[in-house]
Amino acid sequence: MCIIFFKFDPRPATKNAYRLILAANRDEIYNRPSKAADFWGSSNEILSGLDLEEGKEGGSWLGISKRGKLAALTNYMEGKPNPEALGRGFLVSNFLTDNLDSYSYLRKVSSEGHLYNGFNLLAADFKTNEDMLCYYGNKGSPEPIRLKPAGIYGLSNSLLETPWRKLQYGKSLFTSVLSKALPPDGLVQELLHILNNEELNTPDPLQESQGEGHYSKSMLRALSAVCVRSPGYGTRTNTVILVDTEGHVTFTERTMLNCNVSQWSTNSFHFKIHDS
């Protein structure tokens, strides 16, 4: 399970505003091997965490490149996954290394959506002349959609903007923080605080009906929080990404160490997007 809150505003009204504000949690088995966010590849162009699970090495859940390409993935809550399906994490990595724009890439992905277990994929291009943010979920519409500017969105483990209680609650907190005039460091800290909210949002008939027969009642309760905590599984990475009007990117990742919910490491990266 995962959750993402984001505001997309390619032409913000004020100079100190942001073209993108994104706050995301990665929920995963605590002992699944992975690499914390860092630049990878010979050119140091791409920044992301990487999956190190056997057979899935090199996939990712969230990343951004210095060329202004961004992708983020959540799984779709469903029954037993098909073990023969393609690895979903490569949908992120492939976009970050591809030359296709976000909409064209998602159109390509939509034609192959049946080859994967359920997923949601955000893909964006941040360019000098025009920003574009698109969405595709292989359990929803057959075509990707371009998201409207100046929108605040939430995505968890159902289709975009599905009104699960945890999503609505987290989105309200996210919206409240954005209404404050905070410096970048303060904004990052407030968003990390939201991502670590462990309040249970139950009962939630909508979420429960989607997970019925696939998850125990106790697990569904645990999954109703923005920050998931259960034995051996839960939120193990928080990520906040800010893209300002000049193309400066702040990428902050807080990640669990040693499968221990009391041990965390926080790292921030700063760079400027270039079009070439």
From TrEMBL:
It holds the Pfam family TANGO2. InterPro entries: TANGO2. GO terms for cellular component: Golgi apparatus. One of its GO terms (biological process) is Golgi organization. This is Transport and Golgi organization protein 2 homolog isoform X1. It comes from Chanos chanos (Milkfish). The lineage of its organism: Eukaryota, Metazoa, Chordata, Craniata, Vertebrata.
